[in-house]
C-alpha cells in the first residue's frame, strides 16, 4: 500500500481544496407572484413555471 513519506503542507492542502467550495444557488423571481425562486424550479408559492401553472395550489 502506498503511504506518503512526508506530510503535505497546509499551503498545498489549501490549494487542493480551493475548488471544493459550495457555490450559492442562483435565484430568480417568479413573474406571477414576484417571490424569489431557485432557477429551473416550480414556484412553491403559486405553482407557476415556464409561462403556465403546473401545480394547482390548494387555498388554505
UniProtKB/TrEMBL annotation:
GO biological process terms, alphabetically, are: translation
Molecular function via GO: structural constituent of ribosome
Q: Which residue intervals make up region (Disordered)?
A: 1-25
Q: What Pfam families does the database record attribute to this sequence?
A: Ribosomal_L32p (PF01783)
Any one cellular-component term (Gene Ontology): large ribosomal subunit
Q: Which residues form a coiled coil?
A: none
For this UniProt record, the keywords arranged alphabetically read as follows: Ribonucleoprotein, Ribosomal protein
Give the transmembrane ranges.
none
Checking SUPFAM superfamilies in the record gives: Zn-binding ribosomal proteins (SSF57829)
Entry superkingdom: Bacteria
Similarity field: Belongs to the bacterial ribosomal protein bL32 family.
What is the official name of this protein in its record? Large ribosomal subunit protein bL32
State the species of origin.
Answer: Novipirellula aureliae
The top of its lineage is: Bacteria, Pseudomonadati, Planctomycetota, Planctomycetia, Pirellulales
Amino acid at each position: 500500500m502506498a503511504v506518503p513519506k512526508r506530510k503535505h503542507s497546509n499551503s498545498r492542502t489549501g490549494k487542493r481544496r480551493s475548488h471544493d467550495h459550495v457555490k450559492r444557488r442562483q435565484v430568480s423571481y417568479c413573474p406571477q407572484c414576484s417571490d424569489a425562486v431557485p432557477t429551473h424550479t416550480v414556484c412553491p408559492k403559486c405553482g407557476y413555471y415556464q409561462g403556465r401553472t403546473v401545480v394547482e395550489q390548494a387555498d388554505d
